[in-house]
């Protein structure tokens, strides 16, 4: 990653004969930068252009690129020396002949980070699947594969059982949930693990005096148990699971309560998660969102949800915490 700050727009490149990419691409990158689609690597020149919106996509090697305007189908750009790729997204544009404001020149610094649990902090897939299949077998039903079980996850235990058993009989669903909980509480960390780089990143955010909390649709008692067993509970001021089905994400009520409890603002709050509900709850609350492509639904599904940021590894989150980036 370049050591140069995003303190002002510096370079722009012409992209010739590629109608899918805006003709002017602004980037604080070395003069040797080149586009993968074959355009010129002519020396960059100073530009008076300014970015209206700077959005980083931290990549596998924690490199930074800028989203730029695309006219038609989004293209892919590769910068030499920067191993990651950046999907060009059409909503972000570059405007000419306006001085860049401080907000345009630097990333916001967040002081409240809210994290989803499953698929964000911890890879819980196999333990969830084992518990669901245990319940299916209790009722002489065929077991489901991992991908199918994970497609049922995210909206609470009762909804997961509704999908697993294809039933809406509430009393029966309640019994299924009890059976799931009875097994899962003793096996919730048999195979689960904290994502690589998570603990180190949380430590760094704490050292920067950030407030960290968990906002999940998993029951609070199970969430606390998993976080404690895996050794990361101490990072969080609050672990919030829904007391009522109506308060589950994407309902923003619990998120906004956490913002008020910390005494911060929506502008300084970031919701980090891997699912549709995580991106939607952030939007409903009026806060920024960060999608985790290493989670359960993947990059393409996240991009369709239009998160404010995307990260492919946990340390990428630190790029959003540093005002000098």
Structural write-up:
This protein is an alpha/beta fold and 325 residues long. It folds into 3 domains: 1-106, no CATH class; 112-122 and 193-321, HAD superfamily/HAD-like (Rossmann fold), CATH 3.40.50; 125-187, DNA polymerase, domain 1. It contains 11 helices and 15 strands. It has helices spanning 102-105, 125-138, 146-151, 157-165, 170-187, 198-207, 220-229, 253-262, 276-285, 298-305, 317-321; strands at residues 11-14, 24-26, 45-46, 50-51, 76-79, 82-87, 94-95, 112-115, 122-123, 193-194, 211-215, 238-240, 269-273, 288-292, 309-311. The strands form 5 sheets. The chain has a 6-stranded parallel beta sheet, with helices on both faces. Strands 2-1-3 form a 3-stranded antiparallel beta sheet, with no helix packed on it. A two-stranded antiparallel ribbon has the order 4-7. Strand 11, helix 7 and strand 12 form a beta-alpha-beta unit. Helix 2 crosses helix 5. The N and C termini lie close together (10 Å).
Features:
11 helices; phosphoglycolate phosphatase activity; 3 domains; DNA polymerase, domain 1; Rossmann fold; hydrolase; 325 residues; three-stranded antiparallel sheet; disordered N terminus; alpha/beta; six-stranded parallel sheet; phosphoglycolate phosphatase; HAD-like_hydrolase_sf
Write the layout of secondary structure elements.
Blueprint (H helix, E strand, L loop, with lengths): L10 E4 L9 E3 L18 E2 L3 E2 L24 E4 L2 E6 L6 E2 L6 H4 L6 E4 L6 E2 L1 H14 L7 H6 L5 H9 L4 H18 L5 E2 L3 H10 L3 E5 L4 H10 L8 E3 L12 H10 L6 E5 L2 H10 L2 E5 L5 H8 L3 E3 L5 H5 L4
Parallel strand pairs: 8-11, 8-13, 11-12, 13-14, 14-15
Antiparallel strand pairs: 1-2, 1-3, 4-7, 5-6, 9-10
Helix pairs in contact: 2-5, 4-5
Family: Belongs to the HAD-like hydrolase superfamily. CbbY/CbbZ/Gph/YieH family.
Keywords: Hydrolase
Protein name: phosphoglycolate phosphatase
């Amino acid at each position: 990653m370049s050591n140069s700050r995003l303190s002002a727009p510096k370079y722009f490149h012409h992209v010739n004969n590629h109608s899918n990419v805006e003709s002017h691409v602004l980037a604080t990158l070395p003069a040797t930068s080149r586009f993968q689609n074959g355009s010129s690597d002519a020396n960059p020149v100073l530009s008076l252009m300014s970015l209206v919106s700077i959005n980083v996509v931290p990549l596998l090697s924690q490199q930074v690129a800028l989203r730029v305007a695309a006219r038609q189908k989004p293209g892919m750009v590769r910068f030499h020396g920067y191993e990651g790729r950046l999907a060009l997204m059409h909503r972000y544009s570059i405007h000419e002949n306006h001085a860049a404001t401080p907000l345009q020149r630097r990333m916001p610094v967040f002081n409240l980070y809210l994290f989803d649990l499953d698929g964000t902090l911890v890879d819980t897939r196999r333990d969830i699947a084992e518990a669901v299949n245990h319940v299916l077998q209790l009722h002489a039903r065929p077991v489901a594969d991992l991908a199918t079980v994970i497609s049922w996850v995210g909206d609470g235990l009762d909804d997961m059982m509704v999908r697993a058993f294809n039933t809406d009989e509430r009393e029966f669903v309640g019994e299924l949930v009890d059976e799931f909980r009875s097994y899962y509480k003793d096996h919730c960390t048999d195979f689960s693990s904290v994502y690589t780089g998570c603990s180190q990143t949380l430590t760094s955010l704490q050292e920067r005096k950030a407030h960290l909390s968990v906002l999940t649709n998993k029951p609070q008692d199970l969430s606390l148990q998993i976080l404690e067993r895996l050794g990361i509970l101490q990072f969080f001021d609050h672990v919030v699971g829904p007391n009522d089905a109506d308060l589950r994400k994407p309902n923003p009520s619990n998120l906004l309560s956490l913002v008020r409890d910390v005494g911060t603002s929506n502008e300084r709050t970031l919701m980090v998660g891997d699912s549709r509900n995580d991106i939607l709850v952030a939007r409903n609350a009026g806060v920024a969102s960060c999608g985790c492509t290493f989670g359960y639904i993947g990059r393409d599904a996240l991009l369709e949800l239009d998160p404010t940021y995307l990260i492919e590894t946990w340390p990428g989150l630190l790029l959003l915490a540093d005002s000098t980036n």
